[in-house]
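FW: tagging you since you asked about this chain on Friday. Here's the raw sequence from the shared folder, copied in full. Didn't touch anything.
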Amino acid sequence: MSRYFTVPVFALTAIVAACGRSDRQQTTSATAGANPPVVSGSTAGKDRAGEVETKSAPVTYARAESTFNSGKYDEATQLFSAYAESNPENAWGYYMIGVSAWKNGDGDRALTAFDRSIELDPNHRKSLYNSARVLLEMGRPQQALERIEKALSQEPASSEGLRLLGRARYLLGQVDEAIEAYHRALVVDERDVWAMNNLGLIYIDQNQPNEALPPLARAVELRGNAPVFQNNLGVALERSGYPEAAAHAYESAVQVDSSYQKAAVALARVTSLLQQTESAPVDLDQLAQQFEREIESWNGSSSEITQQVLDSTPAASDSTTASIETRSDSLDDCEHAE
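HL: got it, structure written out here
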């Protein structure tokens, strides 16, 4: 079995949301004082001989963002680099260089840009989290952990941060701590499907496929159109002795993404197996409901468990945090099973 985290650590379909313009054009700390972007276009002026020469106006955030949203990540990297050159004190410009370069497959450049964003605004949570993701992909979980914990010190009850904490802990070989982090993420957000997926993958990796079934069944119940969830549920079902249900899960993954070769190969394998043996039934709805009740038991009927989450996370920082974000623009925490 292998895992990878891309945003597709393990794309998952990777659901990638675009960056919100309004909060990216603001500065995020007392040191970031960039002026609002200007309208792109060209301006004309006259040289000494009276001839007209045309000068390009500075690249605007809106233009770079539009390019990013259209999936042209290499071009977006260049445009955000030009924007950052004109707005060198705006952490968001460097942050977007990092996201664009990362999606373009250039981890080194992404990390350099995220680091510059953090230099400008040490409490830039999005840069801390996404640079941690890059470090996890690079196989540097200890360095990633330091950034994740710093971001969590500002926002202790963050399902995103706790989910990343689980990834880092697991890569460091801290299995129990990783499971606890995913539990805490689900206490904060009981519909965090990636926490469910990654929790299930830990159980698969630890050769406990039956334990993986409830969280993966719940993830599929909430987002059945994510082929990675269907594939991972198929793996857990197959290893738990339910080849017929596994075949259905693999088939669902292929129906959503016909290029999903891993699920297609697994589907052919279990289909062949079904011709040789009978398969026991399994109630996935019941398993999903079981996991939902389990989360409720962790959460409790009061704020006691939530307070425990806050108390078990580093104290919040007194320094200025990043601006309020209404949309996530990071790659999902993707893990896949073999």
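FW: Residues 1-54, 312-331 have pLDDT under 50 and may be disordered.
HL: agreed, and Strands lie at 42-46, 52-56.
FW: great, closing this out.
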